Amino acid sequence: MKTARRLVPLVAALLLAACGRGGPAAEARPPLWRVSDGDTTVWLLGSIHLLPANVHWRTPAVERAIAESRELVLESSPDDSADFAGMASGADLPPLAARVPAALRPALDATMKRSGVAAATLDRRKSWAAAATLATGQAVAAGASARHGVERILWDDFAGRYRAAFHRAADQVRALDALPAAMQDRMLVAALDPGQSYAATLRAWEQGDLAALARTDADPVLGEQLVVGPNRRWSRWVAAWMRRPGVVLVAVGAGHLAGADSLPAMLARQGLKVERVE
């Protein structure tokens, strides 16, 4: 998944989500890894932050990870909040269509149509926020909701156990807002790829398809900022956690578990025992 996919973990929980759709149940097998030694286990679960109500993702292996873990660590708490609207708005911005190459304007129109977000709304938003809104709008239009997302369900399940997060939501949004304008525009362009739509992302996640989640044509500069950098920090945290006994479940956006610079790959290069369970 490219930037459009990577934006959803960062900001989707900050945006208003619609109620989940009904319909037949959809079975999902999200990617799940285990990092272990003699007395320590860290489960790594690939999450998706907005889901329709009819998606069933708690496989027996996932249920085992939830039951065994004494702690839960997410990217950010679903109870946390940030002033997305305030930071998203900009003054004297060119129209969104002027921020993408002319050849991509039909793709912009198509993406706006899928997301259900009006051009007038997006024109008032900085490019990073417009890209995030387009990505999240597609999920909402598909009937997905933050309250049915993996993080919300896990957070509630772990009530009474230790719960923590790697980042505060406000810090994540501020980091996006601080990106140079040129990089923000690259995020916007990446969000227009139809292969990175919410439907494609959901399908890859449901199938645990790491190849689809680790598209090799992802922008390397954006990848370093949004995926590889966090993976480095989290790999250090996991390596430190492995020095004490116990079991913890770490759930992060599924794209962080895919590719040569994924969190599991980084941990394996540190000499830890890393195995894919699902």
How does the overall form come out from the CA principal axes?
globular
Low confidence ranges: 1-23
Q: Please estimate the helix content.
A: 40-55%
Characterize the largest beta sheet: strand count, sense, and whether it forms a barrel: 6 strands, mixed
Count of DSSP-assigned helices? 13
Number of strands: 8
User: Could you say how many structural domains there are in total?
Assistant: 1
Widest sheet: strand ordering: 6-5-7-3-2-8
Mean pLDDT: 87
Q: Which structural class should the secondary elements be placed in? A: alpha/beta
Report how far the terminal alpha carbons are from each other.
19 Å
H-E order:
HEEEEHEHHHHHEHHHHHEHE
Radius of gyration: 18 Å
Instruction: Report strand %.
Output: 5-15%
Explained architecture:
The protein has helices spanning 3-11, 60-68, 84-88, 105-115, 119-123, 127-141, 150-157, 169-177, 181-190, 198-206, 210-213, 220-241, 263-269; strands spanning 26-27, 32-36, 40-47, 55-56, 71-74, 162-165, 246-253, 273-276. It has 278 residues and is an alpha/beta fold. It has one domain. A 6-stranded mixed sheet has the order 6-5-7-3-2-8, with helices on both faces. Strands 1-4 form a two-stranded parallel sheet. A hairpin with a 3-residue loop joins strand 2 and strand 3. Helix 4 (105-115) crosses helix 6 (127-141), helix 6 runs parallel beside helix 9 and helix 12 crosses helix 13 (263-269). The longest helix is centred in the last third of the chain and has 22 residues, at 220-241. The chain starts with a helix and ends with a strand.
